[in-house]
Design goal:
The structure holds two protein chains of two kinds.
Chain A (H helix, E strand, L loop, with lengths): L3 H18 L7 E10 L2 E11 L4 E5 L6 H8 L7 E6 L10 E4 L11 H5 L1 H5 L4 H14 L15 H14 L4 E5 L7 H18 L2 E6 L2 H7 L2 E5 L6 E6 L8 H4 L3 H25 L11
Parallel strand pairs in A: 3-7, 3-8, 5-6, 6-7
Antiparallel strand pairs in A: 1-2, 1-4, 8-9
Helix pairs in contact in A: 5-6, 8-10
Chain B lengths: L1 H6 L10 H25 L11 H14 L1 H33 L1 H14 L8 H8 L3 H25 L3 H9 L4 H37 L6 H10 L3 H29 L6
The chains are: A alpha/beta, B mainly alpha.
Chain lengths: 291, 267
């Protein structure tokens, strides 16, 4: 049985965070006492958080902490066992609630880059002119215009993930969900894509929920970071990232604040990673550990 | 190896690439076989009542081409093959994909498919004759049944083997059932489905030959059967040759079709 005291601490932490950000604006996402179990296994336990409109919200945690499960619940791919999730959709909005950038290869091998990027818009019967416009814009933003007619097998890993990002942005959702989109890439490509993502995100500042196990990445990208505990996944702490935008990923590494933040989050995470490692002997998998 | 030496292929020529040599060998070996056969028949080393010289088979083939008999029978068989493939393949495709996508459909139909699949299709011929009579129906039915099973099984497997992430993408991007079928299930399973069609058409070709031997008045199978009755061995070989050609050409066409409908396939 999970110790009750930890749950109580979570409540306080969540309360404090949402109090600070709550006044007047309705949160883009409100997660209340979310719980997910797989049989006897508790993957997510009592997670509550408000994500503000336009916030780049990052979740970090050791593998197996249920962060991917949390994102999948937000994406509607998994149902919660308890608690609730509200995504604020303005009345009369034609936009889809969310679009996800998946971990690993998720673009359709049987569609060209263009058709992959247009997928979401096509599925919701957007007018042809809108499709053309949006897809062209985001293929340009991701540097893929030249490869519009290519099939995925002709692309490198980094380019495939760019297509996945273009597909999500082109769909113009209320919120963007990203599940460790860069985890499979080599270090150089990762840096490039992080920069690109920030640049594209800066255009419209959509609400983003971004999952990663990389603390550096969390600090590069996020406005606020939620650190999760090892299984069962609970909120360990929230960390604000006061670094100014637009950010330059490479310049950031020199900034002393960056180092301090990374250090702070790491010391937060260390116990959890250790705990996750001990749990791993039992080899539980909440859908997060596979990668 | 030995055939190549007999045909005198310049094996020692090191300037010729391995691939070209393979190709030369591929063409040379059947020709060599025919030459050996011809020589052996003329020298009466082999019994020409069973193995007539290729030249005499060709002579009969030309006669049959002139009389129009060969063309008519070939076209009749091809028509049955095409209709059977369509009638068996299309429902198999839809059913197989439905079985792959929906566990309830799969649970309901899988035992039926698994139980009927092992029945030798040729054993169904008397039943087909009983139900559809001696006309076109029974022949087309036999091809259809031959095409149905490999396609339904491969379509199910093909859909089940689609990486689950693609179905998640479909759900997240709000693809409805119709779109899930057309944009994910069908293209995702298409390579495996194409293999099913190739297998099915191969089986269809076997079955059409058998079906036409019994209770038919046209077609290549009928032609081979009458050749047996009249002991016209050359005509029999012409029929076998035509079936071989059809099989060869169809395989080549299907490979080409595959390249066209699956442009994303790695080379």
């Amino acid at each position: 049985m999970p110790p009750m005291s930890a749950t109580a601490t979570n409540r306080r932490a969540v309360g404090a965070a949402s109090d600070a950000a709550a006044p007047a604006i309705r949160p883009a996402i409100r997660i209340s006492e979310l719980r997910k179990t797989f049989g006897h296994l508790v993957a997510i336990d009592n997670v509550s958080v408000d994500v503000q409109p336009g916030e780049f919200f990052v979740i970090v945690g050791p593998s197996g902490c249920g962060k991917t499960t949390l994102l999948r619940i937000l994406a509607g791919l998994e149902t919660a066992s308890g608690g609730s999730i509200e995504i604020d959709t303005p009345a009369g909005s034609q936009r889809p609630a969310n679009s996800m950038v998946f971990q690993g290869e998720s673009i359709f091998p049987w569609m060209t880059v263009w058709n992959n990027a247009a997928y979401g818009l096509r599925m919701r019967n957007a007018p042809a002119a809108v499709i053309k416009d949006k897809v062209a814009h985001y293929l340009d933003a991701t540097g893929l215009t030249r490869f519009a007619g290519y099939y995925p097998h002709q692309l490198s890993g980094g380019m495939k993930q760019r297509v996945s990002i273009a597909r999500a942005f082109a769909n113009d959702p209320e919120i963007l969900l990203m599940d460790e989109p860069f985890s499979a890439l080599d270090a150089q490509n990762k840096l490039l894509l992080q920069e690109e993502l920030l640049r594209i995100w800066d255009e419209q500042k959509k609400t983003v929920v971004f999952i990663t196990h990389s603390v550096d990445e969390a600090v590069y990208l996020g406005d606020r970071i939620m650190v999760m505990t090892a299984q069962p996944g609970r909120v360990k702490s929230f960390v604000r990232v006061p670094l100014p935008r637009p950010r330059n990923v490479i310049e950031l590494q020199k900034a002393p604040e960056f180092g301090e933040l990374v250090h702070r989050i790491w010391s937060n995470l260390r116990d959890e990673v250790q705990r996750a490692r001990e749990q791993d002997e039992g080899a539980h998998d909440t859908g997060d550990g596979a990668a | 190896m030995s055939i190549a030496i007999i045909s005198g292929t310049p094996e020692q020529n090191l300037a010729v690439s391995t691939r070209t040599r393979e190709r030369i060998l591929g063409i040379a070996s059947p020709i060599a076989l025919l030459v050996v056969w011809e020589v052996a028949a003329r020298l009466h080393v082999i019994d020409t009542r069973f193995f007539p010289a290729p030249s005499s088979v060709i002579a009969v083939l030309i006669d049959m081409l002139r009389s129009g008999e060969l063309v008519t029978n070939t076209l009749v068989s091809l028509r049955r093959l095409a209709l059977g493939t369509l009638i068996g393949g299309v429902p198999a495709l839809v059913l197989g994909i439905a079985m792959g996508l929906n566990r309830w459909v799969r649970a309901a139909l899988d035992p039926i498919v698994a139980a009927t699949y092992p029945i030798p299709k040729s054993a169904i011929l008397p039943l087909a004759l009983l139900i559809f009579g001696l006309g076109e129906g029974s022949k087309i039915f036999m091809v259809a049944i031959g095409v149905f099973f490999p396609v339904v099984i491969n379509a199910t497997t093909g859909v089940l083997e689609i990486n689950h992430i693609y179905l998640d993408v479909g759900r997240n991007y709000k693809a409805n059932r119709w779109n899930t079928f057309w944009t994910i299930a069908l293209p995702g399973a298409l390579p495996v489905i194409m293999t099913g069609f190739k297998l099915g058409i191969g089986i269809g070709l076997i079955l059409i030959a058998i079906a036409e031997m019994i209770g038919a008045k046209s077609g290549l199978g009928y032609m081979i059967w009458t050749a047996w009755e009249t002991f016209s061995v050359e005509q029999m070989y012409v029929g076998l040759f035509m079936i071989a050609i059809i099989g060869f050409v169809l395989t080549a066409l299907l490979n080409e079709l595959e390249r066209v409908v699956i442009p994303w396939k790695r080379d």
